Amino acid sequence: MKIIDTESTRRALPFDRLIPALREMFIAGCEVPLRHTHSLQAEANDPPRTVLVMPAWQHDRYLGVKTVTIFPNNAQCGLPGLFSTYVLYDASTGEPLAQIDGNEITSRRTAAASALAASYLAPADARSLLVVGCGRVGSLIPEAYRAVRPIERVVVWDRDEAAAKALAARLCAQNIEAAVAPDLAKAVNDVDIVSCATLATQPVVQGAWLRPRSHLDLIGSFTPQMREADDACFAGARLFVDTQEALQKSGELLGPMSRGVFAADDVAGELADLAAGRIQGRADGDGRTVFKAVGTALEDLAAAVVVYEASDSI
């Protein structure tokens, strides 16, 4: 079994390779059971500790399992709160093929999925991008989006101004025009695409700030308690999701649906529908589009296969 480390995983997943791989996997499809979630708390007052198990497979091709451990108290001992590992198997024999850095797979496939959605939903001439949240995923958004749209200007914002300044500096060092947004409302109104990758539990972006023909990408809310956008962000917009699971898990959608802002039937389609051409993406004259993702093991499997099949050359 191959052991593929962080740097090798990163080198194998440039976005011009990963985004088409995701598109192909969404079209082909694979088996994706609901993720397993287990709490490791022995007593009610124990610190929260969680294990996620996310399998996916294509019959007689590849089988993959991602395990994620979430230990929020790790910060007290100087460790990340989340670790992730991916194991890829031969689906016809069960033979283990590779252990791959799961953190790198998760962050890069997440940014790539948003860029894939934007390739159908963002204005074709979109040249300006605002990144809200400059963490592991947010820092990858500009590179991913530049693979699908002619982005010339990037603005970044984070509650931690130091994180925003650091990302802007890295982008400038790559000869990308980038700056920190001093005023979030003004920045939202001044760009074609807004991408949010935060852990917010209250709305960060307001619909009143958005341009009429903009594209809003919502990554962060993956539990019912999390939310990045207010109700007005959805008013009059065409809403798409990565999978139907988003309607069951994300506070971004559960809250507005409970208040009658929109119904589940109002969702225009899923990412697989866009990739396969079953539903049209942005058309001339369309107004605002919104894409909400919670992630799926299908994306992990697609990324892991790319890494494994490139492993002889990395």
Descriptors:
314 residues; alpha/beta; eight-stranded parallel β-sheet; six-stranded mixed β-sheet; 10 helices
- H/E element order: EHHEEEEEHEHEHEHEEEHHEHEH
- Give the structural class: alpha/beta
Helix content: 25-40%
Shape: globular
- Overall residue-averaged pLDDT value: 94
Strand order of the largest sheet: 9-8-7-10-11-14-12-13
Contiguous low-pLDDT stretches (5 residues minimum) are none
Strand content: 15-25%
Report what the structure shows.
By secondary structure, the chain is of the alpha/beta class. Helices cover 30% and strands 23% of the residues. It has ten helices and 14 strands. The chain has an eight-stranded parallel β-sheet with strand order 9-8-7-10-11-14-12-13. A six-stranded mixed β-sheet has the order 1-6-5-4-3-2. Strand 3 and strand 4 (62-70) form a beta hairpin. Helix 3 (102-121) crosses helix 10. The longest helix has 20 residues, at 102-121. The chain is globular. The two termini are 16 Å apart. The mean pLDDT is 94.
Short structural description:
The chain has helices at residues 6-11, 15-28, 102-121, 141-145, 161-173, 184-189, 246-249, 251-258, 271-276, 297-309; strands spanning 2-4, 36-39, 50-57, 62-70, 82-90, 96-101, 128-132, 153-157, 177-180, 193-196, 215-218, 238-241, 269-270, 289-292. With 314 residues, it is α/β, with parallel strands linked by helices.
